[in-house]
Amino acid sequence: MLRWLLLVIAAVHITLAPGVSATPMGSAVSNSEAQTRGLVFGVHPFMSAAELQRRFSPLLEYLEVHIGSHIDLKIASSHAEAVEMCAEAQVDFAFVGPSLYAQATRQDPRILPLGVILGAYPRLRGVIVVREDSLLTKIPDLKGTRFAFVAPEATVGFQVPLYVLDQSGVHLQDLSGYSFLGNHANVGYAVLAGRFDAGAVKYEMFERLQSSGLRILAYTPEVVDQTFLATARVEPPLAQQVKNILQQMNTSPEGRKVLTQLRADITGIVPAEDAEFTALRFYADYAQRCLRDSREQSHQ
Amino acid sequence: MSSRTNSPERISTYKKVQLVMALFLLGLLLCGLVLINFQREQLLHDAMERTFETEQNLLANLLTEPLLRSDYVQVRNTLEGFFAGHTAYHEIILLAPNGFEVFRATRAEGEILYQWRAQVEVGSEVHNLHTLILKKYVTNSILRWTQSMWLVGLFILVFLATFGRLLWMVVRSLGLDPLSSEMERQQRSYRSIFDNCPDGILVRDCTGKLLMANEPFLNMLGGHAITDLQASNVPLLNNRDKCNNFDPVLAGGTMVFECEQYTNMGTALPLEVHSARITFGGAPAVLSTVRDISKRREKEWHLRQLSLVVENNTEGMLVTDMQGKILAVNRAFTQISGYTEAEVLGENPRILQSGLHKPEFYRHMWTELHKKGVWQGEIWNRNKSGNVYPEWLTIRRLEDEQGKFKSYVAIFSDLSEQKAQEEKLTQLAQTDLLTGLPNQLLFRDRLQQAVIHAEGDSGRDMLVVMTIGLDHFKKINDSLGHSAGDQVVVQMARRLHTCVQETDTLSRLRGDEFALLLLDAGDKHTIRSVAERLLSAMREPLHVEDVDLFMTGSIGIALYPQDAKEHDLLLQQADVAMHQAKDRGRDRFCFFSAEFSAEIAEDLKLEAQLHKALENRELLLYYQPQMDITTGEIVGAEALLRWNSAELGWVGPDRMIPVAEDSGLIVPIGTWVMQQAAEFIQRYYARSGRWTCLAVNVSAVQFMEADFADIVAGIVAHYGIPASCLELELTESLMLRDVEEAITRMNVLRDLGVGLALDDFGTGYTSLAYLKRFPIDKIKLDRAFVSDIHKNLTDAALAQSLVAFTRVLGRKLVAEGVEEPVQAECLVRMGFKYAQGFLYSKPQPEEEFIALLDAAARKA
User: Chain B residues with CB inside 8 Å of A253's CB?
Assistant: First the structure.
């Protein structure tokens, strides 16, 4: 009981903290500078801070050993803050969702992609799910229903499915209601519990909850998975060194262990061109417009 | 008074009272225990109910707020933490208003005594009430304690009983009990001597009635009980005259005789009987010891037989003493040498010397004999008539039992006929039986001699070797039969022979191939004219089995020393030139060309070796396991053809298969592979009781054979294996040659029940439409897509798409060429179930593969 309470308190404490460590902004970091003043690794809040801390610690330790510099973890309090810390070079390296990467690089084109994660599904697949016993069978049936999304910045949890809905004639205003539940699991459970008629989740979440009674109503286009990046304040040689380390991780048992600690299905970090993110920028713009239109219409 | 107090009735009553009192006290004790336990459970129940209420309130508070926000992750975390911290809870379930189970955690053990349900309200939304179900358990420790006591009591009783019994047995066995006595022990000792004596011992009275007999005697008679012998008057010791005539023995003497005794199995057992008078039980009796002499009799019989063998042996034998005086000879000796036994006994074997050997020969022979105790060799001797003959002689020195040399034994056989036979065989071995021409062996020998001669004579003309092949001879064999083929060869041989000179050697090398050695060919012009003459002779029509045949031939020409200086190479170059002539359209001759030779030499060599590979058992199968990568189990294997050529060493499939396909050998080899695979499956089943599945590669040539399906069906039936255990791997290119025909053939094979796999998928041009139509069970993703699966997003995405695609089609998917752990991890994560590659096992020879299968079975 006591252990459980302590865990909750610790999680709340970490979540509320703006960053585990603060790093002053400055000019580009070379390897030698990194060794003296240390580096900062930013992460977007796609799960609880305690969980992120647990998952990323082995990776940071791995990188520290290989580049010889101390690295602090900085967990953004929101997706917007994650974009900001990358675009404004508040961190040296970061791990962000694909749409956040797309937004950040729009603001600062000097950001370098270091690699995308290679999971059980090499590209992120999203699905629109309903309960197995639901009468909804196609996207137009969603008009007048309650819909659960992950977050406005979520790629497969909002932006891509929103585009799919919109293209099928179901606009945000046509829904009887929608909410952002913070993560994919909440969306899945909320649909299963009947709180919402449908929801948008990544395919892995559907697979996890399929046996509980979820059904796919529609697939959404695949997009590139979460991404490692180097911000503008990192010198190219150091960025290249980290890129090599990340992309070579799956060649050693030690590296593979670290990868699976990050996410159980990750088997490697592979190169990704900036062009992979072009579609994501489009989805992000599209989602922003839809949200704005919906809000304006609700004000009227 | 005293007698009244101790009367039996009073004692019995007293005991009954004691028993009733004891039962009463026991019942009282049990009632007390039940009451205490009841009270304890009541208190426990009250305490739990209060705890339930407290914990219900706590959980209600913790869950309400996240449920309002639909934060099910936090809800589940909260419940998980609670469940982990409260081990007394057997089960916690949270149900959504629609009945969906948001959370469930259960512990397996324990007995549920109490259950409590509570509803947690989510804000003010009455229709959104979630239901929380809690279950707690306690164990009934008293019951368990009682059960344990019964078990302990029972154990003590059993222990005491067993221990007591064991103790008594030990005391008895050590003779420590008062029942044992010194006399008994002595009697046992005498009895032991009596029973363990290797000879039979029996005691009879003066009338011959059996009084006593030991076990060996009874065993000699086949296991009679002594009482049977005493009661039934079984005739003992068949030589009844001596057996029952005890007079000499009773007179104080002893008697020894041999006789036969019938056992109860009906066999006669030879015995040696020694009898003597004794006093037994105060009366005179006869003690007899009986010895089984069957082995001694056998030895004597063996010696008699041996003597007969020696006497009737076709090899001559003689025995001398150490001074060389002949002691004995057998019948064969007298036949071969012409001397009678009486003539040679006491003589020295020198009378047989032919005089052809020098004294050194005999000196060497005696030296060897003294050194090694034996001498063997061919020797010429002279018989009584004075004729000299060869013989194979073996002389052995014999020792007595003390190791002292006693005599010499000479054994010899006449080699006259053998020598004549060898000469005849040599002649036969150098002649082709069909044509009467020198065969290849003799031709090579003459060619070798000619080359040696030419080497030593620099002014000599060039040597010419021609190889002559009949064109399309196989068609004759196939259409008219081998008898007609033989006639063609014979007639052609006659014609060719008319075209050459006496000094030339025309030989039949093999089948439809001849070779010609020209010793004085002169210049190239002369050689051409000889070749033209030969071609012209072959073009003449042949009349075989009422059919007119028009045949042609192809000739290859190699020259010494220009083309080769070694006889073997010279013949080989001529053969290459002949193939060149055939390649250029047949019915022509070609001089050897180094360029062409270089092109086809290797192919020819491979083909020639491959022809012999099957019969020389140079082909073998290696097995590469196919794994279920989700469980690590071996689900089958691919049988891979390997060729360990005696001449070429290991030849890879990439070199071997094209040659086999070009030569048509792929069909018999492919059939052999399927047979071997089926035999392995059957053999492994007989050994282990488990069926294993093997996949074999099928070439396009083999697949398009008209009777391919029949062959497969025949193999499956012959070896009695389930058809599904044999899988045929077909390549995309094979199927795309004629898609409709391929599908028809695949359907026939599918109906047989054999498995079909699409090999090397991804390297060809199979469309999805075809893939859907092909009746295959399995798709094997080519290694090209697997090697970079862990570092190339596109390869990974393609492979992942194939997982989904095969899942929809209901086909199995196997990844080939998995070499690194990271590739395997990627495949597992992507949903691949099967794979093969060096990571799991390289192709293994049969023994190692069986060991792998056995190890896997033991693990399972």
Answer: 821
